[in-house]
Automatic annotation (TrEMBL):
Domain DUF11: 298-422
All residue ranges annotated as the DUF6923 domain in the record: 55-289
SUPFAM superfamilies from the UniProt entry: DPP6 N-terminal domain-like
Organism of provenance: Empedobacter brevis
Higher taxonomy: Bacteria, Pseudomonadati, Bacteroidota, Flavobacteriia, Flavobacteriales
Pfam families: DUF11 (PF01345), DUF6923 (PF21959)
Protein's UniProt name: DUF11 domain-containing protein
NCBIfam families cross-referenced by the UniProt entry: B_ant_repeat (TIGR01451)
InterPro entries referenced in this protein's UniProt entry, alphabetically: DUF11_rpt (IPR047589), DUF6923 (IPR054215), OmcB-like_DUF11 (IPR001434)
Residue ranges of the TM segments: none
Domain of life (superkingdom): Bacteria
Length: 754
């Protein structure tokens, strides 16, 4: 016995046989056995699963391509041979798994294309669809919704036929006119299953010979009413977007000039996802509208305040960087940074700065937690500066966690770098009382301006020298600057008049004694170096020096300088140097190295303020072809730089450090061109470590004290770091030792110890 059940979408063929009722499968065929003697076998003739492929059609004799989106750039494989005709307005029909298009020319017939072979079948004319000579009107925009409805729109032309949208019934080849509320100059659209609308890119002033007034803007069409809505603001890039793709509610578009973008259907913002091939003829795209496009990416997030400890009642500033290592861009990633436990939300404020084509939803200064939706092309970054006021009542560790999450259409290749945690330890009260127990050792030497007490100073335990006065103070040795001590000893104590602090010599360098609860030595970590302009640390011009810096035998837990774990090099752009204050720069960089690129007064002042905030600046000078006046002025140097000489000699008295060996009285060399600053141009609080050797020459390497506390190092020529004597990864020449003693000096100024 057989029963056949049919409706408009599929038929059931039911056959009864003996057996038990039990469902065993339901994938096009379901076998159900019964406890009796009959088994119905149900064969379902339904719709095939969607082909997940991405298809591109282009060229005069249209070729069909399968797009492999697993790599960036995409790869394109031809499907079959080019057709002997041209077609456009291509869409993928999820109801039967075929592509459909409109033939260019007269008459405008509907084509059915096999996506596996590229074979084209001409189905004939479409009732209700105007069939006009191709040079007057042709159909270039097309897509098929999840119910199999085929929408097409004509090529932009002077007759405003681009206001005529047609909804085509594929089965009976009939078209229904939907008059649009706006005229569009568009070259493709894609269907969004989430809201039932068509999306494309409208070219404003298309056809105008003045390309400067052409712009582009995302639009949507409601196919039930014909209502057109323009989304967001117009974009100056007026390139034709000839291939649009709808993918599970997401909209993508490929420009004819190259480049695949994802479009935000709320704001109109676009994000660069991948490169794509150039096309100028019959360019169109198709994809099953209900399936997503998944692109691989590697999102990451970092967070630090540059500290390992905190004091209750103080403040700290975190720098958070969210970025994308690729291979594809991403739109709609979410950065989350909750207010740390024990911190009121009103005690936290932050700003966001974008770079590399990234975008953020944050404007101005915002209080509380971060919950930002961002877009990140490959290499793009969003940098957050977060200021936290720590309550005096806070105890325990201060732990702050930030995370970044990919949107559903992204596959993150390395989720391990999606979370960053910064933990600071509470150092408690900054007091350690002396030992005044009665059984301690008596003090044997005392100086007093008071009436001498009986048994004094022996009644003060555990001292070496006791001083007493109500109106007098002790003055330790006062020197103009620490460089005046030509033979310092470990443990020597002085007052540095220039740097206005009490200094202690640790056997290597002088350090100001800090009034702080933090440990005097910074915990080992990576040092962040920002490079402004060319021929600076981290750039390819300094390849040998960079390789020596990153050699763990030189810098690292087991290296010559053990107090750090390595270096991170990054570009410091002109825009960032202009917009960021010294405090903001200090949150992003430990060391800034500037090279020969003209700098504005504002930028130079920001570098000077960065040094005052505790950062270290290395300033590479050069000849008069570059304007160094702003940076010289910012650090109190009088006048301009001149043209210098290639050779210099290090001081026989002053030495930046001796971590990498003795570098007093050694020959130094620059490369190519040099700058010149004379000794009489320097502020009084300067220390010179090298001079030009020519008669009438200037200073070559020097630091400046007072407000800058020796944390700025000037070098007469960037060639000091790339001369022929700087080679390979081992530090074994006098000049190599000098430039690394210079770096060691910079690290010690930051609080890191060898």
């Amino acid at each position: 016995m057989k029963n056949i059940l049919c409706n408009l979408t599929f038929c059931l063929l039911v056959t009864f046989a003996s057996g038990q009722f039990m469902e065993t499968n339901y994938a096009g065929r379901s076998v159900i056995s019964s406890s009796g003697e009959k088994t119905p076998i149900i064969e379902i003739s339904g719709f095939p699963e969607c082909n997940p492929g991405i298809f591109l059609s282009q060229d005069a004799n249209t070729s069909l391509y399968a797009v492999d989106s697993s790599t960036n750039p995409f790869t394109f494989t031809s499907i079959g041979s080019p057709a002997d005709l041209a077609y456009n307005a291509t869409g993928y029909n999820p109801k039967d798994g075929f592509l459909y298009a409109i033939k260019r020319g007269f008459p405008s017939t509907m084509l059915k294309i096999d996506p596996t072979t590229g074979m084209v079948e001409d189905l004939g004319e479409i009732e209700g669809l105007p069939s006009i000579m191709w040079f007057v009107i042709r159909y270039v925009s097309g897509d098929i919704d999840d119910n199999g409805n085929y929408y097409v729109l004509s090529y932009p032309n002077a007759d405003n036929n681009q206001q005529n949208l047609y909804k085509i019934n594929i089965e009976n080849r009939t078209a229904t006119l939907i008059r649009l509320t706006e005229s569009l100059s568009t070259f493709d659209f894609a269907y969004n299953i989430n809201d039932g609308k068509l999306y494309g890119v409208h070219i404003i002033n298309y056809g105008n010979s003045d390309s400067s007034i052409r712009k582009s803007q995302l639009y949507s069409i409601d196919p039930t009413t014909g209502a057109v809505s323009f989304i967001g603001s117009a974009n100056d890039d007026a390139g034709v977007v000839g291939a649009m793709y709808g993918a599970a509610g997401h909209i993508y578009g490929a420009k004819n000039m190259g480049g695949l973008y994802k479009y935000n259907t709320t704001t109109g913002e676009r994000t660069f996802i991948s490169s794509s091939p150039f096309s100028n003829t019959e360019n169109d795209g198709a994809h099953c509208v209900s399936l997503p496009l998944i692109f691989s990416t590697d999102l990451y997030v970092t967070k630090t305040d540059g500290k390992s400890y905190y004091t209750a009642g103080s403040s700290t500033t975190y720098t958070i960087v969210a970025g994308n290592n690729g291979p594809f861009g991403v739109q709609g990633a979410i950065v989350t940074d909750h207010v740390p436990a024990g911190i009121p939300a009103e005690n936290v404020s932050y700003t966001a700065v974008v770079s590399g084509g990234a975008s953020s939803g944050i404007t101005g200064t915002v209080a509380g937690s971060i919950n930002d939706v961002i877009s990140l092309p490959v290499g793009g970054k969003v940098t957050y500066t977060v200021k936290v006021h720590i309550p005096a009542s806070l105890t325990g560790n201060l732990t702050n966690i930030v995370s970044i999450a990919s949107p559903p259409d992204s596959n993150d290749l390395d989720p391990n770098n999606n979370i960053a945690t910064d933990t600071n330890i509470n150092v408690g009260t900054c007091v350690r009382p002396g030992d005044f127990t009665s059984d301690g050792q008596p003090t044997k030497i005392g100086i007093t301006t008071q009436t001498k007490q009986q048994l004094w100073p022996g009644n003060i335990p555990n001292g070496f020298l006791a001083l007493e006065s109500k109106d007098k103070g002790m003055v330790i040795s006062r020197v103009l600057n620490s460089a005046k001590i030509t033979d310092p000893k470990e443990g020597m104590l002085i007052y540095d008049i220039t740097d206005k602090c009490v200094k202690l010599h640790n056997g290597t360098v002088w350090n100001c004694i800090k009034n702080t609860c933090d440990p005097l030595v910074e915990a080992p970590r990576k040092i962040r170096i920002g490079s402004f302009a060319g021929y600076t640390i981290g750039k390819s011009n300094f390849s040998a020096y960079n390789s020596q810096l990153t050699n763990l035998s030189n810098y690292g837990p087991t290296g010559t300088f053990k107090g750090i774990t390595g270096f991170d090099f990054s570009d410091l752009s002109s825009a960032v140097l202009t917009s960021n204050t010294g405090d903001q720069l200090k949150n992003s960089y430990d060391i800034i190295n500037t090279g020969y690129s003209s700098m504005t007064s504002v930028q130079a002042q920001h570098v000077a303020d960065f040094v005052k905030e505790g950062g270290v600046a290395i300033i590479n000078l050069d000849n008069t072809a570059y304007n160094f006046n702003p940076i010289l002025t910012a650090f109190g140097i009088i006048g301009s730089n001149g043209n210098g000489a290639v050779s210099a000699l290090s001081s026989s008295v002053n030495e930046l450090s001796n971590v990498f060996g003795n570098t007093k009285n050694i020959s130094l060399s620059g490369a190519a061109t040099q700058g010149r600053v004379l000794a009489n141009q320097l502020p009084s609080a300067s220390t010179v470590y090298a001079n030009e050797t020519v008669t009438g020459g200037g200073v070559a390497v020097w630091t400046i004290g007072r407000d800058f506390k020796g944390k700025v190092i000037f070098v007469w020529d960037e060639g000091l770091f790339r001369a022929s004597t700087i080679a390979e990864t081992i530090i074994d020449t006098p000049q190599e030792r000098f430039v690394h003693n210079l770096m060691a000096y910079a690290l010690i100024q930051l609080g890191f110890q060898p």
